Amino acid sequence: MYWLLNRKSELSLENKVLLYKSILKPIWTYGIQLWGSASNSNIEILERFQSKALRILVDAPWFVSNEIIRRDLRIPTVKEEINNYGSLYINRLTNHPNQLANKLLEETSDRRRLKRFKPLYLQSRFNQ
After folding, report:
1. What is the CB neighbour count within 10 angstroms for residue 71?
2. CB 84, CB 69: distance < 8 Å
3. Where are the beta strands (DSSP E) in the chain?
4. What per-residue confidence (pLDDT) applies to 66?
5. CA–CA separation, 29 and 71 (whole Å)
6. Is 0.85 topped by the overall pTM?
7. Gap between the Cα atoms of 45 and 18, Å rounded
8. Is residue 42 helix, strand or coil?
9. pLDDT band at 55 (very low <50, low <70, confident <90, very high)
10. How do residues 80-112 score in pLDDT, each as one tens digit?
11. Where along the chain do its domains lie?
12. Calpha distance 21→25 (Å, rounded)
C-alpha cells in the first residue's frame, strides 16, 4: 500500500487517513482482545507499525513526534484502542443472555502458570 500512501501519491490527506482506517487498522485490530493480553513488547510492535504508517501518510519530518501526528489526525493509540475494545468486550459479556458468558467475568483464585493478563483486566492494565 506504500504506493498509495507515500508522499508522491496524489491522494489527499483525508483519503489517505480513510485508507488507513478502512484497510490497515482492521488488520491489527482483529483479535485485539487477545493482543491486549499479550506482553508489552508485542504491543509495542503494533505501536511502531501504527507510527510508521501514520508518518508515511502525512510525510512528517523526523523532528515531529508521533504523539503530535496522532493528535492532529485524531487517531487513538494502540493502548487506547485496546481499552476501548476491552470495555466493549466486558459490556457485551455483562449483557449476554447466556449465563456461562457472564461467568467469564467472575474472578477466580486459580493459580496461573504464566503471568499473562486476562481480557477482563485490560481496562485497568493501560489506565495506569
Report:
1. 11
2. no
3. none
4. 95
5. 19
6. no
7. 22
8. helix
9. very high
10. 888 888 888 888 888 889 888 887 777 766 666
11. 11-104+112-126
12. 5
